[in-house]
Amino acid sequence: MQRQTRFKNLQFSDNVLWTSRDMTKLGCGDRCVRNNACVTFTYSYDGPHMTSCRLHATGMTSVSGNTSAAGTNLYLVTDPWRWDWSGSPCADNMDCPMTNSQCYSGRCLCTPGYFYSQSRFTCSSECSTLGTSFVDYRLLFIRSNNEENIANMTIPDCFQRCLTATSYTCRTIDYTHDNNQCNIASVTALDVPEYVHTKCISGCIRTHYQRTCL
User: Fold this and answer.
1) How many CA atoms lie within 13 A of 180 on its CB side?
2) CB 109 within 8 Å of CB 204
3) Side-chain half-sphere of 49: how many Cα atoms within 13 Å?
């Protein structure tokens, strides 16, 4: 699902399938995804209890002949059968409608600390069954709180060490690329104070990895 910035602050009357008020943007997008005829939807936010959702059976090609509507954005549903939004390009957080997601370094990702569900395409603070893949957050890291600190280890070996750990449950990895340092932790960014998980300053080459959820 992609926001069409060319059509910002415009309301359309073409091929309207359905309209509703007082919906979340996530709910509006989900309604479009579940409607096989829906190609685009507009979502307007004017404040609490002042939202509008409108589904359309067509894409938009022209900005002319449409009504000016401040706070309105048009979204294109690129794949109505599988809404796997994680990793899709974004310009800001408005491009990432899923609850507890954000635009991180130009990609829609779950906010650090939230687990991405590969089956439900959601972001959750809890996960009962961890997956074997990882979501990467460039330049982010968690200070200390490590279960293991292993030097001179490749990224694939670091992943494998995490997945096969038996004395603790591995949930995150901090990997330093310039010296191949693998730091494995059982905590996420939600488990530590905000000042403990931070972005690297200039010259730092680190990536934070969080396991997905099934």
Assistant:
1) 8
2) no
3) 0
User: CA nearest 212: which of 90, 129, 146, 97?
Assistant: 129
**What pLDDT score was predicted for residue 80?**
40
- The whole-model pTM stands at 0.62
CA distance 19 to 37: 14
Distant-in-sequence, close-in-space partners of 188: CB < 8 Å, separation ≥ 6: 112, 113, 114, 115, 171, 172, 210
Q: Say how far apart CA 63 and CA 16 lie, in whole Å.
A: 16
pLDDT by residue (tens digit) across 179-207?
A: 899 999 999 999 887 755 566 666 678 88
Nearest Cα to Cα of residue 41 among 51, 106, 65: 51
DSSP state string for 162-188:
HHT--SS---EEEEETTTTEEEEES--
- Per-residue CA distances from 192 to 126, 169, 173, 185 (Å): 15, 16, 14, 12
More confident residue, 139 or 42: 42
Residue that has been written with the tokens 């310039």 in this structure:
178
C-alpha 7/C-alpha 106 separation (Å) is 20
